[in-house]
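Checked the freezer inventory, then went back to the computational side. Two predictions to log before the end of the day. The first one is the construct we discussed on Monday; recording sequence and tokens without edits.
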Amino acid sequence: MTNADVNQQPHAWLARQSRWSPLEIAFWLATLLPFYFFPTYLTLASQIAITALFAISVDLILGYAGIVTLGHAMFFGLGAYAAGLLSVYGWGEPISGLLFAAAIAGFAGWLASFVVVRVQHLALIMITLGLGFLTYELANAMTWLTGGTDGLRGIRTWPIFNYFRFDLWGYTAYSYSLAALFLGFLLSRRIVNSSFGLALRGVRENVRRMPAIGSDYRRHLQKIYVISAAIAGTAGGLLAQTTNVVALDALSFQRSADVVVMLILGGTGRLYGAIVGAVIFLVARDQLAGINPQYWYFWIGLLLMFVVLVMPKGILGGLASLAARRRGRG
């Protein structure tokens, strides 16, 4: 589908994009396989689901709206601390805790959006990076609240619906995280396959033309930034509830940088690219760290260079281009 097709038949294009393909259904059914074939890796699988949800939140603003960020871990960490502190102070119900985490992160995203939408390019990167550093150091200084470098302890997550307890093997954690990932994906899919999603693509492609067609692009960017922050906060809340601890690294620059690497690997502007990138990155990290705990990033760097040189649009983008060429030959 070309840009001309989208411009000429936007409603028909959106309708086609909204349909579920057999490959998508097969993909989500495959997420159930760890329960039966890899039960010893369910803890890792839950971390992948949480990170994939975080990657989707970044893809909404980076891949669809063109907002380049290196500080989105701020919202992930705020969500984690919000859910964790709610539990520490006596309320460990997980679903309301996730909603609280999303609300806190979304509010922070709304405050930050007034600054973020007014800058572009290098200034935008520096603003998001600076906000991330400020939040990290603030959490580090407020040891009475966050635990500082020792982390937030004393989190006790209640059973889901007072029935499903979080077990040591990760069955409940993975089920819970996978359900949250799927719901977050459904929301994000609905957004990007709507007229609002098309407006975001327009902002990404040419922000100067949007006012000429009567589009309030800053309001669009503010909306998606708040939604993205809320989803990132939900992912952070999931981390706090499934691990019962929140460390400072939830707010770290490393977490923000890692999720950008995942998007580059999987492909930006493709929601499944965020999930695929998270799976590849975390599985590679788990396996490579087992082989060489000190230098595993060297191999991640090689993988990243290979993908960028061979498939500049990411793995899913490269596969899509290959499929298009084969259809053209046919």
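The second is the one RB wanted added to the comparison set:
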Amino acid sequence: MKLVNNIHVPLFLYNTKYIRPLLKKELRVILVSLFISFLITGAKFAAYFLTHSVAILSDALESIINVVAGGFASYSIYLASQPKDENHPYGHGKVEFFSIGFEGAMIFIAGILILFKAVQYFIYPRELFRMESGLWVLGITTLGNLFLGLYLVRSGKRLSSLTISGNGQHIMTDVYSSLVLMAALITIHFTGWTLIDPIVSLVMGVLILNNGYKLMRRSISGLMDETDMKVVDKVITILSANRRENWIDIHNMRIQQYGNNYHIDCHITMPYYLELNDAHDEMKRVEVLVNEGFTNSDVEFFIHMDPCIPSCCHYCLKSACPVRSNAFTGEITWTRDNVLPNRKHG
């Protein structure tokens, strides 16, 4: 169940009515990115044919990746929008990690090609032509990429989309490298030092390789369910701010991410004498609170309830406990150190 405007909505209806329109917004954003990236890539190749600059060619090769990655991202967002089924009980959101991994691999390959072309130009230098025209074209494409990158980064945060955020960060990296490239070409134009051209290309190739590695690293950690400590801290903050006396402790918390949705397992220690309905209501409160704290995301909880034992008494907040066997000595603050391990705090 999902709480929407104080009404409990079945999860499958929520996914259809609320999550799918959100994913349609993601798809529209990424299609805009794909179209603009296609135009910018064409303009950069035009600048290369005007100038014969290997540094501009490096920038154009990276822009090809924007187009290819945008196409793959469009498909991944479409696939992520499909509802859960028997074969995919957690949904299709993991495909977003494949998307950023694919983009990272393509960027890495582009970096290798750029390094190769730079070394080739050191061995067989070429004369540069029409530098002013190339600079004008590069300036316009850099400005276009700047607006596109900012749009994607903001949209990724607003929609909690890994794919859009990753695409936006890549394009912003492209903007920074283009600015460095423009500074280098202006220097060449006024000094005639053409050796700067392949040197800048080498530097750009190394930076692009590093960017590709980071995206692939992020993809692998997501596919292998590496714990995102920022998400853990957010869940702990929400539960600590709304702590109830029946929640004696929370431990063995594990968080998996599927696109912009989360699956959380945890154990909650509660008074052993609670009736089943009361215990269920307490667990439901946990799920509702965390879902309210994760806007634009759906958080699915699997909670295992542990009965309290005498060693829990010294930190149990229940003031009117009829079976307390040890005096209360103080509240234990929930942190990563006691929420993540599979053991009661006592």
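For RB: The first helix runs from residue 11 to 51. The chain has a mean pLDDT of 80. Let me know if you want it refolded.
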